[in-house]
Design a protein that fits this description.
This protein has a nine-stranded mixed beta sheet with strand order 4-5-6-3-7-8-10-11-12, sandwiched between helices. The chain has a three-stranded antiparallel beta sheet with strand order 1-2-9. The mean pLDDT is 93. The chain is α+β, with helices and mostly antiparallel strands and 202 residues long. α4 packs parallel to α5. It comes from Mesorhizobium humile.
Length: 202
């Protein structure tokens, strides 16, 4: 499944304009990373229900309802005070529940007899600006730290946008993360997911 609406293209601020092609930044918001990973779990595992727990800022920056509607998900129920909270259902039986909340894992699914719990971060994926590249680095480190502090059982996955820099950092971190029971997944601009696996001898 190939997505063309995960990335928002916006004019870069003047101080960062020279660090991106044509002065346009490609932003993959955290909400985009969440829905991409949620649909990845539906497509590639036996899970048919995934829960997403965004905070209020994520809903302001990413149109959950519109994006899911374009994927064939109809909003069946509403929960909470936001316009996007509720359960979305696909004709093939898939369900995605969006419940704005913190501390529950950004993306959670039951796969067989275990739970997959993912922490997600977004960022600008086409920039050479040192500060923004550093934010992507920090995002990966923060997701790993949140998972280490979490009491959620089962598989734990740190999920951030795919760039050459995040791939390089994830490859360095993967062996230590694996020893802590934490996986790393990178989401590409069109929703493709790369699992970063610890190589032997590292």
């Amino acid at each position: 499944m190939d997505f063309d609406d995960l990335v928002e293209q916006v004019a870069a601020p003047e101080k960062r304009a020279s660090k991106v092609a044509d002065g346009i930044e490609h932003k993959m918001h955290e909400g985009a990373v969440m829905v991409a990973y949620a649909t990845h779990l539906l497509r590639t595992t036996e899970a048919n229900h995934v829960r997403i727990h965004p905070d209020g800022e994520h809903g302001k920056r990413f149109d959950f309802t519109g994006w899911l509607a374009r994927r064939g998900f109809d909003k069946a129920t509403s929960t909470g005070t936001t316009t996007y909270g509720g359960e979305y259902r696909h004709e093939n039986g898939w369900r995605i529940t969006i419940h704005p909340s913190s501390g529950k894992g950004d993306v959670v699914a039951e796969v067989g007899n275990h739970t997959v719990s993912a922490e997600c971060k977004g960022g600008i994926i086409n920039t050479r600006h040192a500060g923004q590249v550093s934010r992507l680095y920090k995002g990966l480190c923060e997701t790993v730290g949140l998972l280490m502090a979490s009491e959620n059982p089962g598989r734990q996955v740190a999920v951030v946008p795919y760039t050459e820099n995040t791939l390089r950092l994830a490859t360095r971190m993967a062996p230590r993360c694996a020893r802590a029971g934490i996986e790393i997944a990178l989401v590409g601009s069109r929703g493709e997911v790369t699992d970063v696996v610890a190589t032997s001898g590292r």
